[in-house]
Design goal:
- This protein is of the alpha+beta class.
- The chain has a domain of about 80 residues.
- Helix content is about 20%, strand content about 30%.
- The chain has three helices and seven strands, in the order E-H-H-E-H-E-E-E-E-E.
- The radius of gyration is 15 Å and the shape is globular.
Amino acid sequence: MTEEKFPGKIEITLPTAQEWVKKFKEPKEKAKSKKVDAYLIPLESLQMVMNQQIDAVRAYKGINTAGEETLMLVGTVLNAKTGIFEDVFPENAGVAKTLGDEPIVFDGGRPCPPFGDPESPMNN
């Protein structure tokens, strides 16, 4: 999906993702963020995370630099010894060649509103 249809990059660096999660967990920052009812998830984000050799996908919530709650997607691999699905971070997986050598997290959602369907029965 192009940025004209779905604005913003879908790949961010691990340090950026960590900062967004930290902001989300801080009560003061969460209170300042805009209310989010749902997330519109770009197919490209799902495809890129699914292209990894993974067993499952974990979604983390954060607050991005625009002050919006966001959903970040991380592939996971099951550790058979512990039974824990461990996060895996590809290095520069796809389109974001400008991110350097940092591990990548997929910015997996756009907040609803404004990207919601006002006519959806889920909003009634």
